[in-house]
Automatic annotation (TrEMBL):
Species per Swiss-Prot/TrEMBL record: Crassostrea virginica (Eastern oyster)
SUPFAM superfamilies: S-adenosylmethionine decarboxylase
Family as reported in the entry's similarity comment: Belongs to the eukaryotic AdoMetDC family.
Top-level taxon of the source organism: Eukaryota
Catalysed reaction equations from the record: S-adenosyl-L-methionine + H(+) = S-adenosyl 3-(methylsulfanyl)propylamine + CO2
Gene Ontology cellular component terms for the protein in this record: cytosol
Protein name, UniProt field: adenosylmethionine decarboxylase
UniProt keywords, alphabetically: Autocatalytic cleavage, Decarboxylase, Lyase, Polyamine biosynthesis, Pyruvate, S-adenosyl-L-methionine, Schiff base, Spermidine biosynthesis, Zymogen
EC code: 4.1.1.50
Reported cofactor(s): pyruvate
Residue positions binding substrate: F10, E65, F218, E242
Annotated site (Cleavage (non-hydrolytic)): E65, S66
Active site: S66, C80, S224, H238
Amino acid sequence: MAGASSQNFFEGTEKLLEVWFTGGSEGSDLRDVKQESWEKLLRVVRCEIISKTSNADMDAYVLSESSMFVTQSRFILKTCGRTTLLLAVEPLMELVQEQCGFKKVLDVFYSRKKFSKPEQQHTIHQSFDEEIAHLDKMFKNGAAYTLGRINKDCWHLYTMDAVGVMEPDQTVELLMWEMCPDTMQIFTKKLCQDGPEATKKSGICDIIPGVQIDDFLFDPCGYSMNGLLPGGYYITIHVTPEPHCSYVSFESNVPQENYMELMEKVLNTFKPGKFLMTVFANKESIAKDNHKRLEDKDYVPGYTRTDHQFCTFKNYNLTYSHFTRPII
């Protein structure tokens, strides 16, 4: 995440992996994995731990390339740049069986936006087809989807073709690019000394009040933050501010019946030229009907919707929307 110079390109678009485990004993807990074991796993991915924060429900790690979250039975890893996230899946399953006793994957979700420069990725991540082939070797009932325009902006998802997670579960993402240059200056050492200053000056601290924040400002530029709330809820934000490859991601699993107000807060904070929004919620979640709030939302203040898709599979509803700022 440490900023590249103006001559270099940095792929801000993240790879996002979420794995739910089962088949352990009553006391099995992913948070019992030793930190040195996490560090060894992350070396496979080509990133490292910068800091850790915890509450009663979750451990959250700010990484050199994005974030990692660990609960009793759920593991989330989000990495940007040229990281090799999928190479960690098999070692992860071996690690949690050895140290926690979890013998089975209950569910898996892998997703990402289309890369700006896929040719710069490791071979396994240069195409979604390669990623699918790798995951299919480990999961015999995998199912892969692409939403959006495959010749332009789109979003990929891989999951298991069977009902797994039965407790309430939801994730909202806003992936933003062509960012406002003035806003992006906040996330540089020229304007802010550290993460807390950038968090306050940008207004990130006001998006979801009350979160326990762990933030980091890279040198010379770039920003990452994790925010924790009771109940196993989190937000995470990552900023690539360079003008030629500017990108911001926002992700949260905070349950809401309607994410429109949250979306507008995020947009007002970062002012992207384009963004896509995904809402992924199972039938047990209060967020399951967000697609009804979004289906008639052709216009968001300052933006026009260019694509909108709704899918239902397993016990989840998934909504994908793409917006762009009109050219004046």
